[in-house]
Amino acid sequence: MIAGVKFLQFIPEKVVLTECESRKFAHKQIMNYHITRPSPLLSGVVRHYWMLDNCLPKGGEHVQRIVPNGLTDLVFYLDTRPQITGLQGISMDSGMISGQMHEYYDLKITGHISLFAVTLQPQGLSRLLDMPGSELCNLSIPLRFLFRDFYAKLEDQLHSTVSFRERVRCMEGFLLTRLSKCSMKYNSGRINSSLRLINNARGLVSIESLASAACCSRRQYERIFTEVIGTSPARFLRTVRFQSAIHIRSRQPESTLTSLAYDSGFADQSHMCNEFVRFSGMSPGQFFGECEPFSDYFQEIDPVN
Description:
This protein has about 300 residues and is an alpha+beta fold. Helices cover about 40% and strands about 15% of the residues.
């Protein structure tokens, strides 16, 4: 996410938007916004690249609520860095990497914002870092701590290039070099198959059936899944179901909250409300009243180059 830096609509007041709905606004209203898919060689690690360059009115401020979305991110701030609140012990740097998030938090943006970001596949973080994704669970940390041998050169290249295509090319070179040096210990075909089952079922699948399909005991499966994805199967399924509810609402805007709860697999409306409060700090009514429903996890990308 950072799952990650998910903000693109800039107005001088506090608003709450998910990444994709704000990117949707940006696509319509801000010309200097770009998004594209990765090359085939990196499609198993990277979901997409995106870039934004925009300036708030003088004295303006924007607060962006970030909610869990099942994805992880690398984000490079090429100008002003936002301030982060809601995650303890986090100090913003020019390059940040985020693991799987369980909690929502806020980013406060002032002045000129220019950023380039890489949104990873759920399994992408463990492959890129060559370490258990769970090590970064609910964390957002400076990239220079993890890529000391590469980061300074990469940052210089991103600053020196101007076009989105050049930055994507630069980033793909870095990612391919990084992956070539990894042991691929966390490249699990079993978990990739599990993700397809989870996505097809919109999160409405039992851990027992996922473990059985992976030919694992439940305990073994939970350990492998947590290492590769960065969070437990139970938490990931909850996040996917939350994202699915947002996606269904985007397709059925006139649906009632009761029907949405059942269509999304919640036991009832109260159950859905509790989950929305945990993930976003708002009830479903508040969330959909303030945000255009657009799921980060289930989005369909129309590349803007």
